[in-house]
Write a structure and sequence with these properties.
This is AAA family ATPase. The protein is of the alpha/beta class and 192 residues long. 50% of the residues lie in helices and 15% in strands.
């Protein structure tokens, strides 16, 4: 797997990047905490929060938008001046990464992602959470759990290839634990 040329490993350095960034991409497996993190950063820095699930991918009742329409929406969103976009789909990296100042890759262990998805389902059972499209009632099924379980194996090579091809100079921070996520948020809550 190719190495990420612009990887940032120091959380304090990452926090400085985030403070200066106008456009950020937060990606990772479902249940890892990327939506929560994105919303906290959006609130802290006055960025428009864009949820790929809510704003691009899904229509009410878990109906997926046509790909051409999805792409047109992504193009429209990335043309904004200040945003944080929560979503992994590598098929739009060619549009998103050239406009991105900083990438946060939420790369939690798969059991933590399973736990995150299941606990989120319990919390929102019978309702639609705010970062989902209207009418997409929170659900967990075996197909979704299998997607999470195999995410690292199936998607990581595509994510890395997309980062290398479309954003080789975009700084990337990988968060691999809840502790790292909390440390980053703590650094971001302090005055610069």
């Amino acid at each position: 797997m190719p190495l990420l040329r612009a990887e940032v490993r120091d959380l304090a350095v990452a926090a400085d990047h985030i403070r200066r960034a106008n456009r950020m991409l937060v990606m990772g497996c479902s249940g890892g905490g990327k939506s929560t993190l994105s919303q906290k950063i959006a609130t802290r820095f006055g960025l428009t929060y864009v949820s790929i699930d809510r704003d691009v991918l899904w229509l009410p009742g878990w109906v997926q938008r046509e790909r051409d329409e999805q792409r047109a929406i992504v193009v429209s969103k990335v043309n904004g001046e200040r945003w944080i976009m929560d979503g992994t789909n590598p098929s739009t990296f060619d549009v998103r990464l050239p406009r991105t100042d900083f990438v946060i890759w939420v790369r939690m262990p798969r059991l933590l992602c399973i736990w995150g998805a299941v606990s989120r389902w319990i919390k929102w059972m019978g309702r639609t959470r705010p970062e989902m499209a209207p009418g997409c009632i929170e659900k967990v099924d075996w197909e979704f759990l299998r997607f999470i379980w195999t995410f690292e194996q199936n998607f990581t090579p595509r994510v890395v290839a997309g980062l290398v091809e479309h954003g080789p100079d975009v700084p990337v921070l990988q968060l691999k634990s809840r502790g790292e996520m909390r440390q980053l948020l703590d650094l971001l809550s302090r005055p610069a």
